[in-house]
Structures are given as C-alpha cells and as structure tokens.
Recover the amino acids of this structure.
C-alpha cells in the first residue's frame, strides 16, 4: 500500500510529530498485514507486528489499543483503497458492462498487488471476530450499491442480482489469494464479467426490465 513501508530517517531529524506518527502507523499496518499473511490472525502477536514494523511497544500502544484495533485499521485502509480504485475505474466512457469490467479488473488487480492486505481483508477477517465480520458485511453492502448503480439496477430483483455478484466475487477470490495465484485471480475477473454479460443479455440487468433468466 502507498508509503506503507516507508522508513523514518536515522538519527536526528526535523520531521513534525504528526508526520512521524503517520509513518509509524503506516508501517504498523503493513506489518500486521504481512504477519497475518504467513501466520494468520490467531497466531500473530503484537510482538510479531512490532518486529515487522521496527517500532517500539510503547509506540504501538500510543497508536492502537490492541492487535484487533490495528487489524481493523488495516482493514479500513484496504477497503478504502479498493473503493477508490473501483470508483476511479468505473468512471469515464463506455457501456455499463464495459465500465463494470474495468471496475472488476481494478478490484482483482489491487488484491494481486497487495497480497498481505488482501488476505487480511478476505481470509483473516473471519478469525478477527464479530466486529470485523460486521465491517466486512458493511463494505460488501457498499460494493453491492456501487455495482447496482454501475449496472443501472432499477428494482429490488436487479439490486439483489448485483449483491449476489459481489458475494460471488468475495468467495471466488479466496482460494487464489490463499494460493498466491495471480492467474487464477485474473480468471475470476473474466468469469464474473462473462456471467454479468449473460445476465445483461437475458434481461436480468438490462434497462430496468426483469425477465426470466431461463434460456
């Protein structure tokens, strides 16, 4: 993630305290994601995060109240990045389906570029407890709304179809992320786009009409 691994200059420096704290926070977020990529949420300790970030325990507790607090901050960082990338990709010219395809590829591309954060977001969130799962569900809801607007869903059945697409993506990217398989992630994007194209051709996501999805 941008600047997440940035190191502070050695020795004396004139950086303002807020910049120092921001850099330390970014390093801790990167470290918690990296540690959980290899050890998982339950087995990762605050000490593992400190070692990866190169900061003191005192600094950690000045910024976060617990491992879970740090985890949730990293979760918010990756979901914020995903929403930003999807929104950027969806803007511009093209049909709704073309813009959806750009957004879908931006989504899986971001996951592929940030494997530590991606695993934290997709896999480890289930081990982090109820609050993490609720926050994940809220994010999925926002994505469902984004996809619904993008594909011009005009009634509840169409909006449900968009939510189902988002849920399918969340499930289908899990194994490729666990395996570190970028090609399989690309295949998920292609398969989802093909499925949405089929829904569009059958009228399930076209012009506000709701028709049978049967051939």
């Amino acid at each position: 993630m941008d600047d997440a691994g940035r190191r502070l200059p050695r020795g004396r420096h004139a950086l303002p305290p807020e910049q120092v704290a921001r850099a330390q926070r970014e390093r801790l977020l990167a470290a918690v994601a990296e540690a959980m990529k290899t050890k998982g949420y339950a087995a990762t300790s605050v000490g593992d995060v400190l070692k990866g970030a190169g900061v003191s325990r005192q600094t950690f507790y000045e910024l976060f109240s617990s491992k879970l607090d740090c985890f949730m901050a990293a979760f918010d960082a990756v979901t914020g990045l995903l929403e930003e990338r999807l929104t950027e990709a969806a803007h511009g010219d093209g049909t709704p389906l073309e813009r959806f395809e750009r957004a879908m590829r931006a989504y899986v591309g971001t996951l592929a570029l940030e494997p530590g954060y991606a695993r934290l977001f997709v896999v480890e969130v289930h081990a982090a407890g109820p609050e993490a799962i609720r926050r994940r569900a809220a994010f999925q809801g926002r994505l469902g709304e984004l996809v619904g607007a993008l594909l011009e869903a005009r009634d509840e059945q169409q909006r449900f179809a968009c939510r189902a697409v988002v849920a399918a993506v969340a499930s289908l990217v899990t194994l490729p992320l666990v395996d570190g398989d970028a090609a399989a992630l690309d295949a998920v994007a292609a398969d989802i786009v093909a499925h949405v194209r089929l829904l569009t051709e059958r009228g399930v996501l076209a012009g506000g009409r709701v028709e049978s999805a049967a051939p």
The two ends are 44 Å apart (CA to CA).
